[in-house]
Amino acid sequence: MPRILNLVFRLPVALASLALFLLMAMTFADVILRSAFNAPIEAATELTRLLMALIVFSALPMISFQGHHIAVDLLDGLFARFRLERARDVAISLMCGGMLFWPANRMIDLAERARSYGDQTEYLNIPTYYIGWFIAISAFVTAAALILRGGALALGRDPEQMVRHD
Amino acid sequence: MTESLIGFAAVLVLVLLRMPIAFAMGLVGMVGYMIETSYRGAISMVGRLIIDTSQDYGLSVVPLFVLMGLLVNKSGISRELYQVSNAFLGHLRGGLAMATVVACGGFAAICGSSLATAATMSKVAMPEMRKYGYADSLSTASIAAGGTLGILIPPSVILVIYGLLTETSIGKLFIAGIVPGIMGILFYLLAVRFTVARNPDAGPAGPRTDWAGRITALKGVWAVLLLFGLVIGGLYGALDFWPLHLAFSPTEAAGMGAAGAFLIALARGSLSFAALREVLSETATTTASLFSVLIGAWVFSNFVNIAGLPEALQGGVTSMGLSPWMVMAMIVLIYVVLGCVFESLSMLLLTVPIFFPLVTGLGFDPVWFGIIVVVVTEISLITPPVGLNVFILKGVVGDVSTGTIFRGVTPFWVVDILRLLLLLAIPGLVLFLPSFL
Amino acid sequence: AETKVTVSTWLPPTHPINTQMLQGLIDMMGEATGGEITGELKHGLAPPPAQMDLVMDGAADMTIIFHGYQPGRFVGTKLIEIPGYEGNAEAASVAYWRVHEAHLAQLNEHRGVKLVALNTHGPGQIHSNKTVESLADLQGLKTRLGGGVSADVGAELGLIGIQVPAPKVYETLSSGAADAVAMNIGERTGFKLNEVAKNVYEMPGGFYRGSFAVLMSQEKFDSLPADVQKALDDNVFGEPASRMMGAVWDSHDAKARAATEATPDNRIVTASAEDQAAFAEMATRIQAKILAELAEAGVDAEAARAMVIQDMAAN
Ligand code: NA
Ligand code: NA
């Protein structure tokens, strides 16, 4: 199990890191090429878009599983006093995972629609449904990650500890 | 109007139940939009926003500025900044706290986030202040308050997002933040003085550094100046070294800043492969959580938009005959109240789409309003009960209660309100510099 | 019963597409149906390329799209964007609708939604910081181009394409990250080009044009009573709406031209006779390329282009 979790969550984060580094390097190169040689990377804008989607949706399953979304802990003391913390966290995780299912499903339809219309990027002519499918799949994995988190919390496991950090 | 208010209440309840803010806003927005239009319409809208927001070219500044801040942090620049400030101010009573405030301001000039500024400076300044017997209340408060400058002094992720939401020039917003940011530093110095005047034991004077030592320490600042100059200079197209004319869009400025920080860290030998990996994956995960909030907020704002809230507000203001300044006073008050509970980005995303059309319709300047929003957001970061900067301090320092920090923060909070009133009364303080662009 | 139509828009609130075209369309619909149809603009629901999906799925009832923002999806609509047509936006928009009926509709590129109107903005020109007095001066100019045919034109002119979203044009030009922008002259007001692009290099008939469509949710249209549908189809949708929008583009252009002429440090340079001839040659190459794309999609491209020219001349 831990090995699978590592593969599903950490590998994409490595991919996101790589995409981020490429984004930085490409932006730098684009500015220098444009300023010094009047020869910008014409596809820089669409590559930026692509890399951004890679960054966000590769990292999303991991932060969802580990509960690193921005949240407010104002009433934590209150919940702790009534020993409702775990029940609350399980319920919230399952709800969040559940609500993602419908948009994720819809995104498959949207990607397929883009395919049927022949949508592509302007310079490199990359079909946009590739990225649509990637985002949709990542949304499904995120939904599954949240439900898994709910399950782990219900069993008294700490999702934070279930994936290695190094 | 009623639907929107119910929506707000629902978001608030879910957020207090500790549902992540992104999901709370997304869920309520999706269900609300469904009620206003149709099931298929709402789900498709959400799906498209997820696809499009993650590929928004303008938003690529967010990961790049976050990356720049983290790389700078790794290269030890934050420590050097503190040493310089200390060399000049440390011998005064409360001087180490003053040095902390100034170093925070300097770090803010290369870091786009308040939380990162506070977290970084707490690691550097806290041990030093403890060593010289500073009261925990003063030392933590000076970092928590000084850290808020991260989003006002450019670069600023919050100003970027305000600019993208409202189609206001990010360049103008950045330069408009400089004067209020410097005011913030000066006012915080006053707050430190006030604290040590009341309780001299809170901040004893440290050792004096001679001029030779000060000059030596100054050498540590070049990297900060270089990066700040690169980012801000490039944004204005002011870097004209024939034949190289450097002019950047905000995204490019962020990319150049990050690449510059990377090269500096590399040149100093302070960046191992493992450290780079850590910085990259931290930036990626931060980006993903920020984007989730952005998407959730957009979904929610679409719901109140389709439910007619902007029109209702506009109509309400007209029918009640409120003067523009009364409206502005109410908006600022709402921000201060919301700031008690909400975290900076969510607060901005929740409110700006609603207030912005109203405010500009009344003739207020969009750049000025952006700075006002950021200043009230800064204040929210140190306002109890939820002051994220205070929590950051608590997290890093550990053995100090949030009560102590909030108590120490009070004078800083008071000067913040003073500064806010000044900026409200004299818009020229904000608009003077950008008027030259 | 009164029906309210939600019109989604992504343009700045003060843009004439909002204040005159879409609002004008709402007024026309109200008038034609005796007040049965009312409408409301909704700003910023989604970015431009998402608009067609929003309307297709009923998240909004109507919208306007710029075809060039969805590369790959629209080929037929490039017909109106190619350089070489003489005449104003009204004539071009009317001709566009007619040629669509005759030749382009069969491509069914707007499938899934009801096509309400087509239009094109006035002739696209080059607005720059630097002085441009001839075609040669355009070489190597870093220029923000829209999508669609303008990109092909830019390549032919030797421009270096810079991609920035329209709202960022002002700061891109003012910082010097771009030297120029390609737009119809009317956009000078909204984007404050009189401050940051003081030079207009004008090609009679334009370097290119830009194709827009107004779309309506098919479901929404089908839900309307038959008499309302008929009133809309007969008196509003199609040629009347397209003509109205083209006329708005023209008055927008005229106003901005007057403002530019009244600004002391602004200059409009019209291409010399030689440069016009030189560009006409380039235009032939662009025409050939685009017409080949259309032909491949299954349109009688030459006949379609001839029809536009003839129609515009007759208008
Ligand atoms: Na900053
Ligand atoms: Na607060």
TrEMBL record, chain A:
The chain positions of domain Tripartite ATP-independent periplasmic transporters DctQ component read 23-147
Q: Which UniProt keywords apply?
A: Cell inner membrane, Cell membrane, Membrane, Transmembrane, Transmembrane helix, Transport
A single Pfam family it belongs to is DctQ
Is DNA-binding one of the keywords?
Answer: no
Q: Which family does the entry's similarity section mention?
A: Belongs to the TRAP transporter small permease family.
Q: Which PANTHER family match?
A: 2,3-DIKETO-L-GULONATE TRAP TRANSPORTER SMALL PERMEASE PROTEIN YIAM
Q: Does the keyword Cell membrane apply?
A: yes
By what name is this protein known? Answer: TRAP transporter small permease protein
Q: What does the UniProt entry say about where the protein is found?
A: Cell inner membrane
Instruction: Classify the source by domain of life.
Output: Bacteria
Automatic annotation (TrEMBL), chain B:
Localization, UniProt: Cell inner membrane
Does the keyword field hold Transmembrane? yes
Mind telling me which residue stretches traverse the membrane in this protein? Answer: 6-35, 56-76, 96-119, 140-162, 174-196, 217-236, 256-276, 288-307, 327-356, 368-392, 412-433
Where is this protein primarily located?
membrane
Topology within the bilayer:
Multi-pass membrane protein
Q: Keyword Transmembrane helix, does the record have it?
A: yes
InterPro entries recorded: DctM (IPR010656), TRAP_DctM (IPR004681)
Could you tell me the keywords of this UniProt record?
Cell inner membrane, Cell membrane, Membrane, Transmembrane, Transmembrane helix, Transport
Per the UniProt record, one Pfam family is DctM
Provide the family line.
Belongs to the TRAP transporter large permease family.
Subunit details = The complex comprises the extracytoplasmic solute receptor protein and the two transmembrane proteins.
Q: What does this protein do?
A: Part of the tripartite ATP-independent periplasmic (TRAP) transport system.
Query: What is the official name of this protein in its record?
Result: TRAP transporter large permease protein
Species in which this protein is naturally found = Aliisedimentitalea scapharcae
